[in-house]
Amino acid sequence: MKKIKVLVDFIQFSVAVKVAFYRNVIAKLTDNPDYPSPDVPLVEAKAVVDNFEAAIVAAKDGSHTAVSAMHDVEIRTDGVFTILAHYIDRVAAGDETKILSSGFHPSKQPVAQQKATLAIIDGSHSGSVKFVAKAIDKTGAYIWQYTPGPLPINESEWITAAISTYSYYELDGLTVGTIYYFRVAAVTPRKLSM
């Protein structure tokens, strides 16, 4: 399990969203007992955000000088809040609730992605598909089957396209515009698993 950290995702926000985000952080840190002495005093952080907002208003006319000045102020403001984010990260020590109480966003735990048992993708030409199966340990062979039309009730209606030792196979000769169902079985020393 990874330690939850403070994200610096605010760097990518638009300027208007950044101002709102920064003001929210200041509001949440003000008198917050979990963060008694931020590395950047909140008065200073508020002044930087006020300057940033004034620069945004000044740049509304599209003047190259004003827009450049706004970006300079934006970089300074981002720097101040990056320092605050590191302070929150250090004090919160992975506590998601404490991070949320600061107004910053916490990182998420990685979610293990399950590979699909069988994926069907377009083949190299019209009327072909590629089977890609989840590789199963100690598999001796894969049995690739398909059937056109409605899902069959009887096992005898499944057509075996191939038996291979690889966890992938390309099937040709399918009729374009027809609905097909596909399945794969892995033959292992223990059992046949579908």
Strand order of the largest sheet: 4-3-6-7
Q: What is the quaternary state of this protein?
A: single chain
Shape: elongated
- Percent of sequence in beta strands: 15-25%
Which structural category fits the helices and strands? Answer: alpha+beta
**Portion of residues within helices:** 25-40%
Question: From the alpha-carbon coordinates, what is the Rg to the nearest angstrom?
Answer: 29 Å
Number of domains: 2
Mean pLDDT: 90
Number of strands: 7
Number of helices: 4
Uncertain regions spanning at least 5 consecutive residues: none
> N-to-C terminal Cα separation, in Å?
32 Å
Tell me about the largest β-sheet.
4 strands, antiparallel
What report would you give on this structure?
With 194 residues, the chain is an alpha+beta fold. The protein has 4 helices and 7 strands, in the order ααααβββββββ. The mean pLDDT is 90. The protein is 35% helix and 20% strand. The chain folds into 2 domains: 9-102; 118-193, Immunoglobulins (Immunoglobulin-like, Sandwich), CATH 2.60.40.10. The strands form 2 sheets. Strands 4-3-6-7 form a 4-stranded antiparallel β-sheet, with no helix packed on it. A 3-stranded antiparallel β-sheet has the order 1-2-5, with no helix packed on it. It has helices spanning 15-29, 42-58, 64-92, 96-102; strands at residues 118-122, 129-133, 141-148, 159-164, 168-171, 180-187, 192-193. α1 runs antiparallel to α2 and α2 (42-58) packs antiparallel against α3.
